[in-house]
Each structure stands twice: as C-alpha cells, then as structure tokens.
C-alpha cells in the first residue's frame, strides 16, 4: 500500500538491530549499514528524528528478573540507549550526515539535554536529532520515548524498524498460520494486546493521531522502499480494525 507523503518522521530502531548477527552489543559494521539506510531516507528530503533502544546491551526488566532493583536496572537501560545513540551518531557523521544527540538524562560532557526548541533548530539546519534515554524515567521504554518525541516534534508518523516485517495476528515465529495486517486500528492493537509497542506508547500515538509504521529494518534498502510505499509493513492508525 502507498503511504502519504511525510515531511518529518520519527524513526525508532530497537537496540537489537544494532547487534547485526552478534548475540549482544554493537556491531559497528552493521551500524554503518543502518546509517546508510538513514542517510538514503534523509536524502529524499525527509526530516528525521531518531530514537534507538537499548535492548542489545541492557533491559531493566531482565535486570529486575535477576533480583536488581527495577528502577536502578532501568537507569542502566537508559545509559545503554545513550551508548547506542553515540554509536549511531558516529556512524552517521562518518558518512557526512550531521547529527545531534539529546539525552533525557542529562550528561553535559557527552551530549545535549533534550530541549525541544533547540531540537527544532537542529532540524531546520538539516541535522538528524537522536533522542536518547527514552523519557528519562524508569518503568518506561524507548517505545514510549519515541511516541513522546514524535508528538512533541510534531512528526507525521512513527516508523518502527525492527526484525519483523509488520504486525501479525499471532507470533509468526511460533505459529505458521500467523498473518500480517496491512493496516490495523490502535484500539485493536490495544484490545488484542498485539505486539507492536508497549501500551503507553500506542495510546500516546492514538491520542495524538500519529500513525505507527512497523517494518523490518534488517532487509537492505527496506526503509527507502517502505517510505516509497513499495515495502512490506503494517500501518497502525486511527482506522477501522482490519
Ligand atoms: N528505559 C527506561 N525508561 C525509558 C526508556 C528506557 O527505563 O524511558 C530502560 C528500560 O530498562 C529498557 C531499557 O532502557 O528496558 C532499554 O530500552 P528498550 O527496552 O526500550 O530498548 P529496545 O527494546 O527498543 O531495544
């Protein structure tokens, strides 16, 4: 299906895509490839805000499951997202794409704090702004951070690049009969607990009428294809449930 022409999007990449084929951490060669994808999308004239998760390094829930204090573990997760943001910044700047990292947890020596009007100015100057540390509070995820930044930066859509090519009615890895939705309503996603993003992120997008485009970032060139309306994706929006 063809997507409307977007002026500004928020691209959310889960931390796990930065691992490439490694079981953990950051594969710099793979991050370089992701940066090329982002650059190609930007060269179509699109304004891009970027949010990267931290699941390739640390997830608060995993730490809590092993007995850590949940809030403490979540702060570690937030720090992981800053590391990923810096890795992506480095990869983008190496290929001539100007970026700024803004973190919701202040760390002046490393990056800027989140200041919306300053982020706007960066966008005007053609920079990509990478928002790190989610919403800056424990018990949230970078999906919520992505939804929040998409709303405050007035993005036309939130593109969620992950390792699956859309939203299915069941887990496609476990159920061979699982089918992918072309479009699906926010309310159905929430009611059926479909695995798109966490509920707070979906609700924020619903309330601000920001469609979520779920696609696979693992296939080379797919971001550009999806943006051109030629890729495989699921669009979650304020539409009648499919
Ligand atoms: N996190 C948090 N608050 C936020 C964003 C992230 O506490 O606003 C922590 C949380 O522990 C989370 C981790 O950072 O598990 C990494 O983020 P996330 O799980 O969203 O990464 P992804 O799954 O996208 O790689």
Describe the 3D structure:
It is a single chain. The protein has a single domain, classed as Carbamate kinase, CATH 3.40.1160.10. The protein contains 8 helices and 9 strands. It has a 9-stranded mixed beta sheet, sandwiched between helices. The radius of gyration is 17 Å and the shape is globular. Helix 1 links the parallel strand 1 and strand 2 (47-52). Helix 1 crosses helix 3 and helix 5 (142-152) runs parallel beside helix 7. The model has no long low-confidence stretch (mean pLDDT 94). 36% of the residues lie in helices and 18% in strands. The two termini are 14 Å apart. With 242 residues, the protein is α/β, with parallel strands linked by helices. Bound molecules: uridine-5'-diphosphate. Uridine-5'-diphosphate binds next to helix 2, helix 3 and helix 5.
């Amino acid at each position: 299906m063809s997507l409307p022409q977007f002026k500004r999007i928020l691209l959310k990449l889960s931390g796990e895509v930065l691992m490439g084929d490694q079981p953990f951490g950051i594969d710099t060669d793979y991050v370089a490839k992701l940066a090329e994808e982002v650059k190609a999308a930007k060269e179509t004239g699109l304004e891009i805000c970027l949010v990267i998760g931290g699941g390739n390094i640390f997830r608060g829930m995993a730490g809590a499951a092993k007995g850590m204090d949940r809030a403490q573990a979540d702060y570690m997760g937030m720090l992981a997202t800053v590391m990923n943001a810096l890795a992506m910044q480095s990869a983008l700047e190496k290929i001539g794409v100007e970026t700024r990292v803004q973190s919701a947890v202040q760390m002046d020596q490393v990056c800027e704090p989140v200041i919306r009007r300053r982020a706007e100015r960066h966008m005007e100057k053609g920079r990509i702004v990478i928002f790190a540390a989610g919403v800056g509070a424990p018990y949230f995820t970078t999906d919520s951070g992505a939804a929040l930044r998409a709303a405050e930066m007035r993005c036309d859509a939130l593109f969620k690049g992950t390792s699956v090519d859309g939203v299915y009615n069941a887990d496609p890895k476990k159920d061979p009969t699982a089918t992918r939705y072309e479009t699906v309503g926010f309310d159905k996603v929430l009611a059926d607990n479909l695995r798109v993003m966490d509920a707070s992120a979906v609700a924020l997008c619903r309330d601000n009428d920001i469609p979520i485009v779920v696609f696979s970032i693992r296939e080379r060139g797919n971001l550009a294809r999806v943006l051109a309306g030629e890729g495989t994706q699921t669009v979650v929006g304020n539409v009648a449930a499919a």
